[in-house]
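sorry for the late reply, my laptop died twice this morning and i had to redo everyting from scratch. anyway the thing you sent over, i finally got around to it. pasting the sequence first so we're on the same page, its 611 residues, then the predicted structure underneath. double check i copied it right bc i was rushing
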Amino acid sequence: MALANVVIFGTVMLMLVATMVAVSASGAVKSATDRNFQNAMAAAYAGLADYQAKLSNDNGYALYGNPAAQFSKASGSTFTGDDKNVAFTTSGSRWAAVVGSTDQFFRYEVDNADYSSKGVLRVRVTGKAGGSVRSLVANLKGDGFINYLYFTNYESSNPAISGSTCTTAYQWQSGVSNKCQAVQFAASDVLNGPIRTNDVFTAACATTFNGSVEQHDTRVRPSSGTCGGQFNGGDPAAVPYLGLPALNSNMSQETRTDIPATVPRPGCLYTGPTRVAFLGGGKMTVWSPWTKATQIQVDDRTGKVEAGPDTAKAAALCGSIDALQSASGATIPTLPANLMYVQDVPSSGNNVNKWPGAFPSGYTNTYCTTSVTVGSNGKATTKPNQPFSNGLGYPAADEWVNGRSAGRDATTLTGSASDTYSCTAGDVFISGAFAGAMTIASSGTIWVTGSVTYADATADILGLVGQNAVEVYNPTKCTSYPSTRSGTDHSRCNTSGIALLDRSAGESITISAAIASNAGTFWNQNYDIGPKLGVLKVVGSIAQNWRGPVATTGSTGFSKNYVYDKRLLTTAPPKFLQPVSTSYGVTTQVEVQSAYQVDGACAKTSTGACR
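ok and here's the structure:
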């Protein structure tokens, strides 16, 4: 009996030990599997960070990829090469290794189909660890100017506008003599969105900041007293420098037809003063009398600029040349997810848009075609009461144009109509109800001559990029001239005689757009003349080199109501202005079915196709 009990007890113990060993071995296998499963996703995140770093070091990296990758091929992406990057491998045993690891690897595939039109990149990243493979898809967007309702490089005005001889410098810089004064936010100003400057902001105590405030340091300077605004979006934060490009001329490249790898969908090129009237319903009328070719090709050896080979396609997209030069203009659809660039009349003789020894047909009553006398009051005449303009009707009839305002010495006038409204500069005059998705860029000034609004605020998106300025058109008139012994002196205006030409007290204007002036400013023409106006409402974003004035404190100009278009956090107007350098952040991210198998072959769908 004792022997039987020992045998039974020993058998039970052996069974318990065997069970424990089996459970332990199973747990070890499960632990290893769980570790590989987690590490595979960690490898995918490492691959995403690797691609983001490459983009941040080189904005052009968006054009690198593997056209054979299923994720890229299905989207219609185009690439200029693969930079010999192992991570672009689409099959086989080659994977990019995670730095510092011996058992974690990754690959990524790029979808850049929406990069030029929306500024968004999609990337599918696959991570591998042991026998586990996991994939994620992320949308990436650069930390650009449109991430902010309001962005400035300097918080002072452009001396060329203010007429000052001050020195442009950041407000936080010390030891600068005769430094330009900051333009402050007024008590009535409301900023409904994130704002940023490379300088520091100055604000009245009642200024309302309903979004984040980012600047050189953490203290907004008060315009008076000790407070500097109401910060409903959190305390001000210090951020690094974000550089504006000096020129926007590289945007004109988007109208070339001879570099399909870089510009798969060319936009439209217009030359000289150009007027655009948005008509709603996705239509617009364009007047551009100097334009001779709306899409171009460039001989890289000689620099010769010729019209693109398919002029019929260009006419269908951009308007026929005859219509653009006519008095009625060309009525066309707004450009579909594309860019319009307006350039100065070229001086080079080997450029198709040059007019050697001639002027556009019907281009009469202009500074260009007639030897005229331009008075310092802005009236251009060859004889009394015969006005001349830039070819598009600017200055308007009876408009007083000068470089000084009523608040200064009205007897010392600088500037003239031909300075303000050049007949050969790449200026654009716009207004109306916009429907579609496009960007207008100008080598000169974009003049907003009336409200620009979206027909559908959830679908329409517009970008405005003026090299010199984006300016609210606000002309003046003179009602009282000084008298001399020989009669009335029309070259000067009495201080009390300067008034707004066609805008009355309390009148408001709305601009729905992402606005940028990389070398200039966004401002209100004649901001310091006339009665107190209504509200300047901007729905979108504003980026500028200098701070642009729109009013004087409490007496003239507009009150501000700037509202951030939150769609700009995840998308951008087509081919919009990019910073000199930027970092790319993830806007959306989701795990998807694995794109590859452990052996490196593509994972298949139920129909046998690669995912």
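The two ends are 68 Å apart (CA to CA).
thats about all i looked at so far, will dig more tmrw
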